[in-house]
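Input (structure):
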């Protein structure tokens, strides 16, 4: 038996155990062919990767070195007994192989795969194979069973109200941070809106990333309930509340691949909403040339899948197709997007009007779920915003959630990308704008991103600035500037 030794090794999501080559409990060469090892301590079992060290000052032969994620998951004190053995191959791997061959999986298959994924029994390579196989051939019923399995992988919240509302966007549009305006409007009206969000997958910022500039988002379930009871709503990261934890495992594999597969998107969004206890959902689906959904035909197909899954989960769904041909607002990146949100809530003259208009439209659709409002949602939403009630509600939510983990400032490195010719801005490529913002460091550096100075329809002269790049890290900033100078993302003619 070995003893636990926590080591200062941040392996992100991965659990990793470090053993001495002279380990007294298990021979490292016996583990050489193992894809994973099983680590047991304190009544818990965690699958982990393995590193062998020849440095006894790092890990002694009698110790098991625990990376930070593994130490947290085991929850044992330093020096506690630890057992390390070769990991048993997960039985659900057969289902993954069958999916790779194009076979249709059962509800039991998906439950087994998701259960093992949450237990970290799979390598990232095996999870990637599963995701790509699902993207190639998934029936609506398989998507339903995947969604149900993801809901069942964690906790599900119940609320003491018959109606719990939410609003969600499928993403893909830079600066489209309407949720941070919709939530306080709806909460100010008195409807319950426990808004849980994921981190960014392929975008420069997610709702949780932007909210974290203003307030703490890593609330546990008790803290979240307290905020919702006091404020009628919250804006938090769903991963901390353990809602559909399988989604965060799958997202961690999707993120480096920079892919958003439709079936996984549907399962991801609806599993989170179901687990959060939502009963009514407004779904924003941007449609446009450089968005995730490029055509009306694609939107119709995706809408049918969302509607099919929602109905069987017992969710009332309202799908809204919106303009996905251009960014929304001016800021792209957490700090800049938070600036735009506060500008709209404060009613400032320079607030981006496209962000304000879209947020009011979506808030109106959510308020229309209320039988006492139905048909007047847009007018009620406008009154709540213009009276300052939404701003006061947002300030109450921010205070209740607590201060952010760190103070965020706008990235001090700055460069302007200028028009190469005069004319009218005919198009702004959402994908290229997002790519440049991510190269600049967003969302890892919350102060990095783009400040858009021109939009579609604006007249520009040669040399006029189209947008500013803000960065924190000089290397990332240089990559972003070079990429933008080669391809700005703006079409002027």
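Output (sequence):
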């Amino acid at each position: 038996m070995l003893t636990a030794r926590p080591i200062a090794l941040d392996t992100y999501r991965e659990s990793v155990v470090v053993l001495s080559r002279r380990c007294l409990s298990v021979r490292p060469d016996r583990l050489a062919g193992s894809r994973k090892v099983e680590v047991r301590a304190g009544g818990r079992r965690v699958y982990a990767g393995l590193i062998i060290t020849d440095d006894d000052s790092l890990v002694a032969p009698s110790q098991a070195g625990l990376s930070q994620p593994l130490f947290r998951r085991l929850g044992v004190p330093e020096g506690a007994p630890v057992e390390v053995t070769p990991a048993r191959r997960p039985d659900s791997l057969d289902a993954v192989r069958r999916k790779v061959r194009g076979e249709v999986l059962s509800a039991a298959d998906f439950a087994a795969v998701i259960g093992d994924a949450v237990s970290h029994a799979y390598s990232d390579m095996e999870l990637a194979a599963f995701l790509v196989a699902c993207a190639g051939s998934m029936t609506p019923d398989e998507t339903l069973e995947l969604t149900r399995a993801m809901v069942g992988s964690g906790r599900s919240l119940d609320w003491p109200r018959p109606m719990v509302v939410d609003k969600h966007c499928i993403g893909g549009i830079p600066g489209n941070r309407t949720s941070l305006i919709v939530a306080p409007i709806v909460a100010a009206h008195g409807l319950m809106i426990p808004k849980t969000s994921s981190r960014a997958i392929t975008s420069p910022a997610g709702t949780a990333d932007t909210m974290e500039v203003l307030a703490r988002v890593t609330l546990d379930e008790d803290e979240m309930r307290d905020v919702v009871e006091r404020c009628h709503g919250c804006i938090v990261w769903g991963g901390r509340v353990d809602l559909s934890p399988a989604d965060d495992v799958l997202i961690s594999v999707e993120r480096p691949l920079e892919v958003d597969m439709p079936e996984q998107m549907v399962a991801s969004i609806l599993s989170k909403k179901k687990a959060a206890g939502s009963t009514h959902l407004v779904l924003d689906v941007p449609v446009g040339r450089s968005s995730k959904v490029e055509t009306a035909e694609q939107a119709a197909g995706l809408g049918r899948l969302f509607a099919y899954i929602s109905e069987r989960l017992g969710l009332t769904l309202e799908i809204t197709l919106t303009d996905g041909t251009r960014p929304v607002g001016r800021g792209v990146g957490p700090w800049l997007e938070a600036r735009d949100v506060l500008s709209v809530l404060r009613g400032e003259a320079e607030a981006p009007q496209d962000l304000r208009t879209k947020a009011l439209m979506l808030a109106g659709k959510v308020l229309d779920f209320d039988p006492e409002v139905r048909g007047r949602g847009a007018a009620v939403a406008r009154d709540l915003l213009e009276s300052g009630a939404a701003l006061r509600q947002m300030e109450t939510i921010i205070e209740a959630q607590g201060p952010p983990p760190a103070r965020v400032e706008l990235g001090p490195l700055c460069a302007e990308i200028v028009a190469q010719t005069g004319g009218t801005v005919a198009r702004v490529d959402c994908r290229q704008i997002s790519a440049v913002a991510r190269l600049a460091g967003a969302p890892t550096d919350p102060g990095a991103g783009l400040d858009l100075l021109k939009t579609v329809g604006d007249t520009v002269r040669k040399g006029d600035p189209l947008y500013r790049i803000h960065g924190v890290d000089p290397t990332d900033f240089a990559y972003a500037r070079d990429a933008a100078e080669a391809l700005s993302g703006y079409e002027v003619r």
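Notes: The mean pLDDT is 93. The chain has four domains: 2-86, 93-137, 165-242+259-401, 413-492.
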